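Quick one: examine this chain and its backbone structure tokens and tell me how the chain folds. Here goes:
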Amino acid sequence: MTAQAHGAAVDLSMDELEQLVKRVKALGASASDAEVLEALVASYGYLTELIRDKQTTIGRLRQMLFGASSERTEKVLSAAPAGPAAPAPPRPKVPGHGRQAATAYTGARRVAVPHRALRPGSRCPHCRGTLCAKGPRRLVRITAAVPISATVYEQERMRCNLCGEVFTAPAPTGVGEEKYDASVPSLIATLRYGTGVPLYRIAQLQAGAGVPLSASTQWDLLARAAGGLEPVLAELVRQAAQGEVLHNDDTPMVILAFLKERRERPAPGGDADERTGVFTTGMVARWDGRQIVLYATGRRHAGENLLEVLRHRAPELPPPVQMCDALERNLPPGLPTRVGNCLVHGRRQFVDVVSGFPEAVGHVLEELALVYRVDEAAKAQGLTPEERLARHQEQSGPVMERLYAWLGAQLDERKVEPNSGLGKAIRYVRKRWDRLTLFLRVAGAPLDNNLCERMLKRAILHRKNSLFYKTQNGARIGDLYMSLIATARAAQADPFDYLTQLIRHASEVGLAPGDWMPWNYRETLAARAPGPGP
């Protein structure tokens, strides 16, 4: 590969770059600086391989590096040289923007403020009428604090000047010997794996507020708490295996320990088929309106990780519907599933060539937009999977048949060069047509894999902010917390409260993890709460 140094090109192989990292370490660089440099070298090698790949277009490379911009039909076509397409119907305004109502602050502490002089049933001071109760006027007052606070209890001590006995005031009621409350590791996990804040940034914020909490201490708390959460993750895996629809996909990840193993491997002449890539797999299981989100980081591909989940599936259940992109590595080896391919991936083949074929691409996007409008209407009306299937067969089926015939005519009638960008997009879609149209034959089959890709953004956010995992164990703990946080959010539960309760009741969780799922843990807590006294 070629690097630029002071205006001159310098050719360096990956081995030479790794040797450079070793020399920098030998000069006394800190461990954190050396880890960052190693990750940068690995990222540079990955980027170079992408550039060498003839299938990687400049547009696709920009998407990988900076994220994809909007692919809405009107925006894609308006950017094409041929100018804007016919205006799409106006979209309804998305609710939720602007000021928040007082009722939105569900986590706020609420203080009842009675009237100082009047009560319901009192006489009106103005007209001598009778006052009746009315809903309260709500004032919202918001204050700020550091994420993690501390209290220092200074227990008074006295020493006898004759016998030397020391007498210490007892700690206040409810203050135990444990230094860190269960809420501390749960908040660290929520910040780290829920919002992508690295531990060293949390440490900097805490130190500045006078409540120091080093990155190593934070990691110790996370690792210690993870042991009590393992039974919950195992139960989530077991329940996910029974799902009716399963989504899966991969995103690249970096584990520094694997880079070290590769450098220390005695090599050339080793196994040429040995896998060196590292991935984070996202999996989403759906059934009965519930979602379970799972993550797995390592050298396995998405299909192999899905296979590990489906090993727990009840044998009497039929094969699940699987939604993924068209890569064969996404399929569980040796295990049948009813596979549907992502319609958005097929659509993206045309989006990528819109600059050269604006009219043809516009036709394809408008036809697919009709299908998505049918699906949106079915969701808005709350149709059952069977009703949704019937609606798609009635309204989307003719659209897809018309589109398939049009695509075939472009190649059969020589309207499009088969090896052009548009020709390749057409061949991609026609080759996978049965899997792309599974939603027309199977109840509950989704149109695309967008759900899983949204869940993978959590792992991508981690990669952007932290660059890497240090060890496989660190990746395993990260996967555990990400899985619990994402599943709690999908169940409309507060991830911070959920993790706190799991850590606080770790002994009970281990005995019956099924009672501590994000959708039922509140009922479990209520059942265990002591009743009112006599």
